[in-house]
């Protein structure tokens, strides 16, 4: 790499720490609680706007500020996990997140709401500190299953955050939800304090060197490029569906947003597939799972296009979510095995690619809807999956040739 190898080299490993089920589940719960904070605001936006009359345009920036903050946190904070002892870093970030949520609950103005939302987004990336730590602690033959379990917790946080926020805000107001948030976060901190072991930092590199090394990792690791490209396209497909679901239900079935919310609960089936996919990847290798996941997601779009009913949407969303989670866990299995000393930086690149894919999928689906409504959305969603499948197949063939040579 371009940076000084002596500063970026792997440090001697401490004796392996057994990652038991209790610790794995605690990490899964903490991931879910952390990631949920970037989704609480979505069902509460109307109530926030009502609290600041005349500032609708400003409060409307809250979800965007939160997502941009999360993207910034991926770039600026996640690489620190390779430099700083991970247990301490996770505790510091959770504590700061709890304080930021208190400030958000007490926000006196619309602009304060936007700024504190961005800070919450930045600090909520602690979930992406926990996942590579779990991969580090897991035994190699159990790494896939461990990642799957922790990712199940993260998925639960995403799926149920809106439901919890909507219920609490409807009965007690939006400030109450952001008041509950710190209690959950500090609870997660206390839970992890009872089970999380200390880690050994993997590099002595300065922070600026860590950031510069991201470009080197991207250039030198073809499997990182393949995994990131594949998952970005699959997440683009996933986001295309969820971006346009509400409009599709309203236009073609005369159903409201509350029904769209129920589809999120149906998608919780992905919680079940993530550990299963991880165990299968441990036994048969992750590449088979990734290929199968692409085929399953492609099948979901065929169902969406050809089975024009609510039953078809339900069947399709189950397939879509199963494929998305299976590929995500398996691609993480691949990248975390590449360079143990750079797992957090690998995660920064991988998750950043997914974030860009989500933006591409949302924009593409919106354009497709304007052109030819739902059939065009199905075409572009399936097209993203086809690109992912082609990229995965090409990468798998290249890897096979390299191993034979």
TrEMBL record:
Residues 23-394 form the Major facilitator superfamily (MFS) profile domain. The keyword Transmembrane applies. The keyword Zinc does not apply. It comes from the Bacteria. CDD domains: MFS_NepI_like. GO terms for molecular function: transmembrane transporter activity. This is MFS transporter. It comes from Paraburkholderia acidicola.
């Amino acid at each position: 790499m371009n940076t000084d190898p002596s500063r970026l080299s792997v440090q001697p490993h401490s004796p392996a720490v057994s990652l038991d089920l209790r610790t794995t589940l605690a990490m899964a719960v903490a991931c879910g609680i952390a990631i949920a904070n970037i989704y609480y605001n979505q069902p509460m936006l109307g109530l926030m706007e009502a609290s600041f009359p005349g500032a609708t345009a400003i409060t409307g920036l809250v979800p965007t500020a939160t997502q941009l903050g999360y993207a910034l946190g991926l770039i600026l904070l996640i690489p620190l996990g390779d430099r700083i002892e991970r247990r301490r870093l996770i505790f510091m970030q959770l504590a700061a997140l709890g304080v930021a949520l208190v400030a958000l609950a007490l926000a006196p103005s619309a602009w304060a709401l936007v700024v504190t939302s961005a800070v919450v987004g930045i600090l909520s990336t602690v979930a992406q500190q926990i996942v590579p730590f779990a991969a580090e602690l897991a035994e190699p033959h159990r790494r896939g299953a461990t990642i799957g379990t922790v990712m199940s917790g993260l998925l639960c946080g995403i799926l149920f955050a809106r439901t919890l926020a909507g219920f609490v805000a409807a009965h007690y107001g939006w400030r109450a939800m952001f008041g509950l948030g710190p209690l959950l976060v500090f609870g997660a901190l206390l839970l992890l304090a009872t089970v999380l072991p200390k880690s050994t930092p993997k590099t002595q590199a300065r922070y600026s060197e860590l950031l510069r090394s991201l470009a080197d990792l991207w250039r030198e690791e073809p499997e990182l490029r393949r995994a990131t490209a594949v998952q970005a396209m699959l997440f683009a497909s996933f986001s295309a569906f969820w971006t346009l679901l509400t409009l599709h239900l309203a236009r073609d079935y005369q159903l409201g947003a509350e029904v769209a919310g129920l589809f999120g609960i149906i998608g919780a089936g992905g919680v079940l597939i993530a550990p299963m996919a991880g165990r299968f990847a441990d036994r048969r290798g992750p590449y088979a799972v990734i290929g199968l996941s692409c085929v399953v997601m492609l099948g979901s779009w065929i169902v969406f296009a050809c089975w024009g009913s609510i039953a078809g949407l339900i069947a399709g969303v189950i397939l879509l979510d199963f494929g998305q989670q299976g590929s995500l866990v398996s691609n993480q299995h691949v990248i975390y095995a590449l360079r143990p000393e750079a797992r957090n930086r690998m995660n920064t690149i991988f998750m950043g690619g997914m974030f860009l894919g989500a933006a591409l999928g949302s924009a593409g689906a919106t354009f497709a809807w304007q052109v030819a409504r739902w059939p065009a959305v199905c075409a572009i969603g399936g097209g993203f999956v086809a690109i992912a499948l082609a990229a995965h197949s090409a990468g798998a063939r290249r890897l096979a040739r390299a191993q034979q040579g």
